[in-house]
Write a structure and sequence with these properties.
heterotrimer; A mainly alpha; B mainly alpha; C alpha/beta; A: 2 strands; B: mainly alpha; two-stranded antiparallel sheet; 12 helices; about 70% helix; globular
């Protein structure tokens, strides 16, 4: 007699079960990633220990973790706002670049001075990121063009556009022909703390989280976003303008991601350069998915990812691991999360042979 | 001049063609696969590594297919058996592919192999204008021609093809006819992924016979967009891929001629072009009778109450 | 008679719902066995168990005395059990031929199209059915689509055919034609399970009848043992149907007039064609008709969900068809939609949030752009109490509620702003008798307060019970009005098939 199982829908699982399942997926991903490391000649236990030590073992490590978490929190929020409406903004990466370009333009070429220049950079980044995403928003709202593909392809365009500026018109004339812009003046930099690279962008990120929380959970706009995300037909029937909402939310999502670009150039790099973001925009997708709709969740998951990135940088030096390996790990986390979703929503029941046959 | 351009068009379009065909097979079964970019990388690396260590190009192509087949099976397992979100799973596959190939590709970076060479088809290659471009090419390109015809025939003239199309449109109807929906879907995703892998292998075995990290540079995403342009038809995928190949070829030609336009701006053209094509084909799709498989992107649960 | 198939003690649950609870019945070779029961009695669920779509929690199936278990429709088909589902299992984009080909058994990988085609045509001719094999399915009428489903089963040579409410989409003439085909199949020795709740048909065609009620099999009767009254009594069972004092007074003042309204569907076919209707203040106006004759288009046109092709809608004498006033007027129309889960609720949001879906902008629910949580909560407490909603834990998504409670949530929301007009589509479909009774009570109370109701239903009993007037719709046109106090069911039936005008 063969063992047979059948799949049954579950009523909503408990919060504890969900948390356990999520933690189990992260552990599962760590386990499989360990095998990958092993086959690449790296001792996984040593590597994981090194990640923890580097990211949390010193004040400097912790500050670096917060530095890495800063753009992740902001972009994670950006992606999650759109997620709530079942809109996929895969273009945060490009929107970071556009935001950085906007901020850089103000910093280098606007001629503004001290009290005004930082707010102007912020505004320029917000607008640039928003405009960039609004293209996909318009196409999706007006003609139902697949926003996943459009936002993604626009990442490539945005990065090429930034490269064009860095290699071309914005190149530092005194920079020995390196592809870099000139450094920002002190007035165009965010303040730094504790003699580390931690900058006020981190607090900006926390502020963004609060703003997004209030927007989503307390306002009638957030209510509409959630309603449209849950059932677009019902929302339209209730008189909500779904097309307009899609356009605005994608634009807002891009604008928030643009702020991450501002925070990176004004707080950390102080100039526009190639490789500004090592894929924060893609990591943000996982963060938004892992955080399951909560702004607080975005902060927590971003900090965890920050640990991973700081540790990963160190592994790159000590074991010659490629930076992109972090992607493999993130992909694995997503796979395991999706699998755990199945066990949250369904249960397997053994099929009994009937005795009275 | 036209001949050279046409030749470059076919060469630039072929990897995209394989990827688009693979994606079409996925979507015909009702499964969206956004892992195309990652699958191409997996195919490119495993194809290159196998050829590098064995010296056999055929072995390279086969192992590209097998590796992508296995990686695609993860997506199939999650979306078909576990009914997971297809978009997230596809993105995960792309990330996984980028990371894993970066990790395992370290060993073969900077190595070279003897890639695919041209073999002229007698008579046909003598045709004016198109002869050289289409019939003085390498074996993989000839294989892609056969594949286009085969997939068309498979969909419209075989029982399996009809079953597969029915599943993509209405899995419950297929189920009611006694068709094993999940088995078909799994195989369609895995085999389609394998073809995508061959598209990747074209890059590392024919275009530039070496492995470079992230060498696909967004071609997988372009393939995803071209599926819509192609209205899920293999024959139209051929035109879509060559249209894209043509833009790429022209852009390279401009660069070679030394225009004053920045190379970065020229490199944007294929992406801009793809978005424009996507918009036009989406609008056209809504006007005419939609060719899109009706149940695309939705998991099938037999016990879901209507 | 030898038993072909026997089901014993079948139980099937879905999260939070017991759909089948200890159902047993059997079917003999060459008989037409009717399953009779109200909506929600479990007929379709039982048949889905029988065809392998649903796996039962417990119970056994025996075919030819052999115990069988189906893990998929494939297994049941292999043993010769085929079903025409209520929601057809067809691919709209494919041709009729492709839809039949995909159902054939034992066809080689490269199918011999011409040979198969002539075989299919032969079957079609044999039963005198009119079908164009090359037409895409979406172009065909629902009746024609049902024939395709039947041909699929005939081509597979099924021993047992299950038809789930086949006559709901047929005109009386088409239904007669279907009965002829079924009688013929019976003579060929095939068994048929026929699902219906139309008494006339049940009397005409059944060899035996099994009655289901609330997921249980009540009894099985042989031909000659039953009559219409007995069946109806068994079907409704011990539930008391309170007598309504109908004919509440209503004035002659017109609240809504529809003149020559035309609506086309997305395939360009006319759903409503030159349709006229008058609704008076405080009246409950029933719309009777066979499903698919324009009922849905009517509701959608009035609630602004679909575009009006031509014609006028007058509210209290004012033309609102295209004016800006329409949208604000629509806001005053309450709507109980046909497909509750598709447009009635926002499944992932809580009960509280669903109750304010239509008036979340109202001043009392917000301070500026911020929502007033306490006001929203208090509103929910009030509605839960007033409409006897069985709410789950606070904040849990509304999709976890049962069908009856979801319907109450929709009604509570729609009636909360004292609407002038209520449009209710099949508001009691799938509800248990208690909930259905409650819905009727709410509509009647609304009428007492001056609300006018358009009640669209296919259940004549329901229409007779609470309507002041009944309008009959056929092929998108108004056939006429009848007074339920005087008109016979036969008269309405004839009007529903377009044969007689009032």
């Amino acid at each position: 007699m063969s063992l047979q199982f059948r799949v049954e829908k579950r009523e909503q699982g408990s919060a504890l079960f969900r948390t356990l399942a999520t933690s189990a997926s992260v552990l599962g991903a760590l386990f499989v990633a360990g095998f990958l490391l092993l086959s690449a000649g790296v001792n996984p236990a040593a590597a994981y220990m090194e990640i923890l030590r580097e990211a949390l073992g010193s004040t400097y490590g912790i500050s670096e973790t917060l530095v890495k978490a800063t753009p992740l929190i902001i972009t994670g929020l950006a992606v999650s706002v759109a997620f709530r409406m079942q809109i996929w903004n895969i273009g945060a990466e490009g929107q970071i670049y556009m935001g950085a370009c906007g901020a850089t333009w103000v910093a280098l070429f606007s001629g503004l001075e001290a009290p005004l220049i930082l707010p102007a950079m912020f505004a320029a980044a917000f607008v640039a990121g928003g405009l960039w995403a609004s293209v996909a928003g318009l196409l999706r709202a007006r003609w139902q063009v697949n926003e996943v593909i459009v936002t993604l392809l626009m990442n490539y365009i945005a990065i090429l556009l930034a490269d064009y500026l860095i290699y071309g018109p914005w190149k530092n004339p005194d920079g020995y022909n390196f592809p870099l812009t000139a450094q920002f003046s002190d007035a165009a930099r965010l303040s730094e703390y504790f003699n580390t690279r931690l900058h006020s962008g981190f607090f900006l990120a926390l502020f963004c989280a609060l703003a997004v929380y209030l927007l989503m959970e307390r306002t009638i706009w957030g209510y509409q976003i959630k309603a449209i995300g849950s059932n677009q037909a019902a929302a339209r029937y209730a008189g909500m303008k779904t097309g307009l909402a899609i356009f605005l939310v994608l634009t807002l999502s891009g604008a928030i991601a643009g702020v991450a670009g501002f925070s990176e150039v004004a707080g950390l790099q102080h100039r526009l350069q190639h490789g500004l973001s090592p894929g924060y925009g893609y990591t943000a997708i996982i963060i938004a998915w892992l955080a399951r709709r909560s702004a607080l969740g975005v902060i927590i998951v971003s900090l965890l990812m920050g640990i991973l990135l700081v540790g990963g940088d160190s592994l790159q030096l000590s074991w010659q691991l490629p930076v992109a390996f972090a992607y493999a790990f993130q992909g694995l986390i997503l796979f395991f999360l999706l699998a755990s979703d199945f066990f949250i929503n369904f249960r397997l029941r053994r099929v009994k042979e009937d005795a009275d046959a | 001049m036209l001949e050279i351009l046409l030749d470059a068009t076919v060469r630039a379009g072929t990897p995209i063609l394989f990827a688009t065909l693979g994606a079409i097979i996925n979507e015909r079964a009702g499964i969206i696969n956004l892992g195309i970019e990652g699958l191409m990388l997996i195919g490119a690396l495993s194809g290159f590594a196998a050829t590098f260590s064995s010296g056999s190009l055929l072995l390279g192509v086969v192992s590209a297919f097998v590796a992508a087949f296995i990686a695609g099976s993860i997506h199939a397992l999650i979306t078909v058996q576990l009914r997971g979100n297809q978009i997230v799973s596809g993105l995960a596959l792309t990330m996984f592919g980028i990371g894993v190939t970066a990790l395992f590709g370290r060993g073969v970076v900077g190595q070279t192999i003897d890639g695919f060479e041209r073999h002229a088809v007698p008579l046909l290659s003598q045709l004016p204008v198109v002869g050289k471009a289409f019939f003085n090419q390498n074996g993989l390109i000839y294989f892609s021609f056969l594949l286009v015809a085969f997939i068309w025939f498979f969909f419209y003239h075989t029982r399996w093809g009809l079953n597969l199309r029915t599943i993509g449109e209405n899995p419950a109807a297929a189920d009611a006819c006694g068709i094993a929906v999940n088995r078909y879907r799994f195989l369609a995703v895995a085999c389609g992924s394998g073809l995508v892998g061959i598209g990747g292998a074209y890059l590392s075995l024919a275009s530039t016979p070496m492995w470079i990290e992230n060498m696909t540079a967004g071609r997988g995403w372009i393939a995803v967009a071209l599926v819509i342009f192609a209205s899920w038809s293999s024959v139209r995928a051929l035109f879509g891929a060559y249209l894209f190949g043509g833009i790429t070829a022209m852009q390279l030609r401009f660069q070679a001629m030394g225009t004053t336009v920045s190379a970065h701006v020229l490199q944007m053209l294929p992406y801009v072009f793809t978005i424009v094509v996507l918009v036009i084909s989406t609008i056209r799709l809504q006007k005419g009778a939609s060719q899109q498989p009706e149940n695309l992107g939705l998991p099938y649960d037999r016990e879901d109450r209507k | 008679m030898p038993k072909l198939l026997q089901l014993q003690h079948i139980r099937k649950t879905f999260p939070g719902v017991v759909a089948l609870d200890d159902v047993s019945f059997s079917i003999a070779a060459g008989e037409i066995h009717t399953l009779l029961g109200e909506n929600g009695a479990g007929k379709s669920t039982l048949m889905n168990v029988l065809t392998g779509f649903y796996a039962p929690d417990s119970g056994s199936l025996q075919l030819d005395g052999q115990s069988v278990r189906f893990s998929s429709p494939r297994d049941s088909l292999a043993l010769g059990i085929g079903m025409v589902h209520q929601h057809f299992m067809l691919v709209a984009a494919h041709s009729v031929l492709e839809n039949i080909l995909v159902a054939l058994q034992g066809v080689p990988l490269l199918f011999p199209r011409r040979q198969l085609r002539s075989k299919i045509e032969q079957t079609i001719d044999e039963f005198g059915i009119d079908l164009d094999l090359d037409a895409p399915v979406w172009q065909l009428s629902i009746g024609a689509q049902q024939w395709i489903e039947l041909i699929k089963l005939l081509m597979r040579d099924c021993r047992l055919l299950i038809l789930d409410e086949p006559t709901a989409v047929l005109t009386p003439q088409e239904a007669d034609k279907l009965f002829q085909v079924l009688q013929r199949l019976k003579q060929q020795g095939k068994s048929i399970i026929f699902i219906s709740h139309k008494m006339r048909e049940v009397m005409e065609i059944s060899d035996r009848v099994t009655i289901l009620k609330k997921g249980r099999s009540v009894t099985t009767l042989e031909a000659g043992e039953f009559n219409q009254n007995k069946l109806a009594a068994l079907m409704i069972g011990g539930d008391k149907i309170p007598e309504w004092q109908k004919s509440l007074p209503f004035s002659d003042e017109l609240v809504l007039e529809i003149e020559n309204l035309a609506v086309r569907n997305d395939r360009g076919l006319a759903d409503l064609d030159n349709f006229n209707l008058q609704l008076k203040k405080g009246e409950i106006l029933g719309i009777a008709g066979i499903a698919g004759n324009g009922q849905k288009a009517l509701a959608e046109a009035l609630t602004g969900l679909t575009r009006v092709e031509s014609g006028r809608v007058l509210a209290a004498g004012e033309d609102i068809t295209r004016s800006c006033a329409r949208s604000s007027y629509i806001a005053g129309i309450a709507h109980i939609p046909e497909d509750r889960k598709a447009i009635g609720i926002v499944p992932d949001l809580s009960l509280d949030e669903n109750l304010i879906l239509k008036n979340f902008r109202a001043k009392r629910f917000r301070h500026g752009v911020f929502q007033s949580r306490s006001a929203i909560r208090n509103n929910a407490i009030e509605k839960v109490d007033q409409f006897a909603i069985k709410a789950g834990p606070q904040g849990s998504p509304v999709r976890l509620l049962s069908g009856g409670n979801i319907q109450k949530v929709i009604i509570a929301r729609e009636l909360s702003e004292q609407p002038v007009v209520l449009i209710a589509l099949y508001p009691t479909r799938g509800l248990d008798i208690g909930s259905a009774e409650y819905v009727h009570k709410v509509i009647a109370e609304g009428a007492g307060n001056g609300m006018s109701t358009i009640l669209i239903s296919e259940d004549l009993d329901e229409l007779y019970k609470i309507c002041d007037r009944i309008a009959v719709i056929f092929r998108g046109r108004l056939i006429g009005y009848v007074d339920p106090a005087n008109a016979s069911r036969e008269q309405i039936g004839l009007m529903m098939s377009g044969e007689v005008s009032a």
